[in-house]
Amino acid sequence: MEMTSLRTLPNGGSLKPDNLRHSQIGKPVNFCCSKYLQSAAISKHILRPALRFNSVPHLTHVSSTPMADSTSRVVPQPECGGHAKSDNVSPNLTEIIVIRHGETEWNADGRIQGHLDVELNDSGRQQAMAVAARLSREPRISVIYSSDLKRAHETAETISRSCGGLEVIKDPDLRERHLGDLQGISLREAAQSQPMAYKAFLSDRSDQVIPGGGESLDQLYQRCTSCLQRIAKKHRGERVVVVSHGGAIRALHRRASPHRRSKSKIWNTSVGILHLSDKDDWTIKLWADISHLNETGFLDSGFGGDKTSG
């Protein structure tokens, strides 16, 4: 996780290392309009504006073929808020909008959080407000589920306020992976200070637990996917928001697309959309979309959201 010492902006200015963020340069675009929802293309060093809109029918009518990285969709109605059966959602499935929490100082510092309860920083609160504004224009949302950790719950509460005060239900099964002895230290430090835990963390074995009470990837997968199945079963025909963490969300992608690894990092407040049917079929309709961050920006060097998520 090396950080460039100085980044030059198109206008001749620069950013210091602790403020290295992607942002979209130019005239702000309202990606949350009631007609289109556009995603942005991401490279290693810049968030590029997407070049065109893709006119795609609402997700209910899109082909059911699983897609790991969808690009855009049309949103027909700028409403959200507590309808018993949400508009345009088939009674045989549940639409779940999966959101990663906003940024924390530990994300910015490359420090491993796991189950430790770290709150959002100022940038994370801005990101939460941006995704909340986006979701306020979604067709009717019934309820919000959230990890009980502060960084997720504060993000969820911000979304709730933008959606007419939707109920937020805390569920500890939506927490990040427990990372044992690695929690509270940076990944850079881990190799020296916790070599056994560090080795376990980087293991390719999905059943490898982390010393100090940490979970294996298989345990994380079972916990998170079972939780989402319970939510889906309870809310058939509805649209639900789930606010969780990078590692947990990657586990959900593994369930929905077991033979295709996600190519996208799960950025802070990125948006994914899953359809869970009553036959227990999972379909990805949108993944790792951050088009709502065109003004807020996101931390390129921040820790989490990829295979080292924590």
Descriptive report:
It is built from seven helices and 14 strands. The chain has helices at 105-109, 122-135, 150-162, 187-193, 195-201, 217-234, 246-256; strands at residues 7-8, 14-15, 21-22, 37-38, 41-42, 47-48, 72-73, 93-100, 143-146, 168-170, 239-244, 271-277, 282-289, 298-299. The protein has a six-stranded mixed sheet. Helix 2 (122-135) packs across helix 3 (150-162), helix 4 packs across helix 5 (195-201) and helix 6 (217-234) packs across helix 7. It is globular and about 55 Å long.
Please name the defining characteristics of this protein.
single chain, 310 residues, alpha/beta, six-stranded mixed β-sheet, two-stranded antiparallel sheet, 17% strand, globular
Secondary structure layout:
Elements: E1 7-8, E2 14-15, E3 21-22, E4 37-38, E5 41-42, E6 47-48, E7 72-73, E8 93-100, H1 105-109, H2 122-135, E9 143-146, H3 150-162, E10 168-170, H4 187-193, H5 195-201, H6 217-234, E11 239-244, H7 246-256, E12 271-277, E13 282-289, E14 298-299
Parallel strand pairs: 8-11, 9-10, 9-11
Antiparallel strand pairs: 1-2, 3-14, 4-7, 5-6, 8-12, 12-13
Helix pairs in contact: 2-3, 4-5, 6-7
